[in-house]
Structure formats: C-alpha cells, structure tokens
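Why do we care about 3D structure at all? Because function follows from shape, and shape follows, mostly, from sequence. That is the central idea of this module. The next example makes it concrete: a single protein chain, its amino acid sequence, and then its structure expressed as tokens.
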Amino acid sequence: MDIAYLIDHHFEVISYKKGAVIYEPGAIPRAVYFIKSGEVKMATVNSDGKEFIQGIFKKGEYFGEPALLVGRPYLAYTVTTCDTEIIPVLKKEFLTLLETQKEFSMELIRNLSNRLFYKSMMLEELANEQSEHRVRTLVNYLFKDQESGAILKFTRQQLADMSGLRVETVIKLVKKLAAQRELKLSGSKIVKL
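And the structure:
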C-alpha cells in the first residue's frame, strides 16, 4: 500500500519519539500500522529479560495485521527505534482496503507468506545448535533480494537479537565469515559479495 494513498485519503499521521511502545503483548488489535517514516522493531522478551526480535519494519512497510485478521491479542511488543511517523488504519478501514484495492490484497498475501517463511526458517535455525550456521542463514536471508555490494542495514546487536545469540558471538562469527570470503566487511558494515 502506497503511503501517499493513505495520506490522500486523509488517514491520520501520528508522530512517536524513539522508544515509544505502539502495542504490547496481550493488547487487543484495533489497527494495522503503516510507517510513513522511521523504524519499528517487533520483539518478544523472555522471563530472563532476553529480547528476541521478530521483525524490523521500515518506511513504507506495515505491521500488526496478523493478529488483527485472526482477532487474537498481540504476542509481541512493537517499539520505535527512532522518531517515527505512523498511520494507523482501523480494522474496518483496513478490511475495506483489502476489498477495494486488489493489488494491496496480493501484496498482503506475499508479505504474510514471506514472514511465515522467515519465522519457519528461524525456528529451524534456533533448533540448530550451530551458531555459525544460524548467522550465515540469517545474513543470507536478509540479503536475499539485494544485489552484490549491498550493505546490510542491521546492527550486530539486532542480528544477535534475531538469531538468539550473544552479540559477542555474532561479532566473532561475522569476522569469521568475512575471513572465509562468504561476506565482506567495509568498516563496521556487512557487504554482500
């Protein structure tokens, strides 16, 4: 869905400061959230306080639709990682968009399928005790649609939170993968070969 379409149709834009919580686990879904600018991370936190990033959403992307569509409470936190502008689309309006905007309906199916694939892949990786394999698979997945020379737009901490590993382990493994010429480092940036 083009953000310009939502703005042209007078959907409200809400500004959030860095660290703002959009919704928490257990909250009842009322809207789907489209990002006009900024970034939002979706994460779960275990009883030890360890965070596991479910996804990171950027400008032009949206989140919150799975729980809304099935009518179940949210399972994760969503928190802004920088100052962010969001357009909340209430359930009734979102369902109308799906009915009237066929291209958006197909986009939603592709997005949900990609997220399901990612979660299935990460479940398999988390069951795999080999941390190097986890990092390699995650980096390859994040680079999947990128051309050679593309820069990975995730920090080592985010990679750690996405893979269930410690940041020190991710740093060591990224250096090892670079030494094996499976990826390239440019300063602190990971670059696709």
